[in-house]
Amino acid sequence: MSRPQSLFEHCRGVVPLRPRLEDWMVDLIADPPRLHALTEDLGAPLNIQSDEPFRRNIAALTDCVADFDLPFLPMFARKANKCLTYVEAARDLGIGIDTASHAEVEQCLAQGVPGHRIVCTAAVKDRALMALCVAGGVTIVLDNADELALLEDVSQGGERPVSVGLRLNGFSCGGRALYSRFGFPLSEVPQIAVRLERSAAFRLDGLHFHLNGYSAEERIAAISQTLPLMADIRGSGSEDFFLDIGGGIPMNYLADTGQWDVWLAELDKALAGERDPITQHNDNIGRKPGPDGAPGTVDSYPVAQLLVQTGWMRQILQTPDGDRKIAKRLRDVNVTLRCEPGRSLLDGCGMTVARVAFRKTDSAGVPVIGVQMNRTQSRSGFSEFALDPLMVPGKGPRGDAVAGYLAGTYCTESEWLTRRKMVFPHGVAVGDLMVFPNTAGYLMHFLESRSHQFPLARNVFLQSDPEAPARLDGIDSGGHDHPAGG
Q: Which residue intervals make up region (Disordered) (predicted)?
């Protein structure tokens, strides 16, 4: 839909990176009294979410793979967002859930997700987590020999075989080894499979890999290198077996992807002294020239990707591998394809809202806008989330136009919500609301911190009926739905 210009007129980057917005976001931002009422009732920062895009994204992904007549079970990466609403939606839609901790497994089981649709890929699995998975019938993806030894001990005397997957590493792509600290080398998997087969305590149900980054070519290479291994350890392949290709399904955050190239070009000019800085202290945000003099990459989640979501998956499945396409090769070895999307399923599901608390200038005379949230509440593993926030005015008095930087609540000189320079054409006032869009995937929960003993942001879901009250997520209300204000 067309976006009312007024949504963007109060705040933008000095070099803009305008976000894509869902209809529900537009409706709420365009209704300042309702948005202000929500933050007054529930506090700020506040994570406002909708599960409708989540359901839509799942349907699109499953429909895409169905076109290839391939058994498929997406496993929602729970670590991407802690809200129970998404667990409930995944349960009701019949997909699986990828868990990474004792609490995540426990919550999924408590919400009625069947154990056979839960996989545990936690980076560290202690005895309590292993025991919970065994008791709940959860598939455990083993990463190393010590985990295998611990599981052998935990599973002794069990009433049923433990469902196990093996995580792999040792792949190559284009003549380059793909590094990973996770998983067993491909060469060791056959002997581990034999060890599992000889034990009545285990059932090897699949193989798994998770590659860093978002490259479709690297996933294609890894699938191609895993297929012969599956044939080796499965024999006739008559029993159910899965190949899980992990997460890293890319998505796009920008309304106009071309703005990213413009922003990079302007950053390079600023770093070269050819224009005024567009980042705090002219920070390069990791963009340093390489040995060949070519510009480096910015340490930001890639916000302007072109091959995304179902297009990315379709490219993988229709790529030739020998005399057959990847999808046909997977069908021929009778495996169920799995993947573990997090961010891409949560595309369009949430935004984080916080209040402007003060305005000032720093010792260099540069405007600083203090916002009542900290940088961990809209950040993943990258140092920057390169997407312009929006501003919803309050009732406070505002001055002239100003360009400056958004500071957060932590007592450090490095506490900037973004190092990119923002422009407020109509000024900024105490009580205005800063809206960080599309944060549901990792950004609102993955790094959130209670340093200084500040409370964490609460999580509220809007209903499909705009007249219905917002609903506090069960993660904040003891596992039960609870009507919220607004």
A: 277-297
At 346-370, the pLDDT tens digits run 999 999 999 999 999 999 999 999 9
The sign of the torsion formed by the CA atoms of 417, 423, 429, 431 equals negative
- Residues 205/240, Cβ–Cβ less than 8 Å: yes
**Which pLDDT tens digit goes with each residue over 222-274?**
999 999 999 888 865 557 899 999 999 999 999 999 999 999 999 999 999 99
User: Higher model confidence: residue 480 or residue 66?
Assistant: 66
The overall average pLDDT reported for the chain is 93
Q: Which helix (H) or strand (E) holds 423?
A: strand 422-424
Task: Give all domains of the chain, ordered by start, each with its CATH number.
Answer: 5-50+349-483 (2.40.37.10), 52-250+303-339 (3.20.20.10)
Given this model, what pLDDT does residue 1 score? Answer: 41
Q: Which residues pair with 12 in a beta bridge?
A: 423
Instruction: Find out whether 471 and 481 touch, Cβ atoms under 8 Å.
Output: yes
368/360 Cα distance (integer angstroms): 5
**Cβ neighbours of residue 228 under 8 Å, at least 6 residues apart?**
none
CA distance linking residue 30 with residue 37, whole number of Å? 13
- CA dist 255 and 435 (Å) reads 16
Whole-model pTM: value is 0.94
When computed from its CA atoms, the radius of gyration of the chain, rounded to whole angstroms, is 24
Contacts of 265 (CB under 8 A, 6+ apart): none
Instruction: Supply the DSSP string of 17-82, one letter for each residue.
Output: -PBP--HHHHHHHT-HHHHHHHHHHH-SSEEEE-SHHHHHHHHHHHHHHHTTT--EEEEEEGGG--
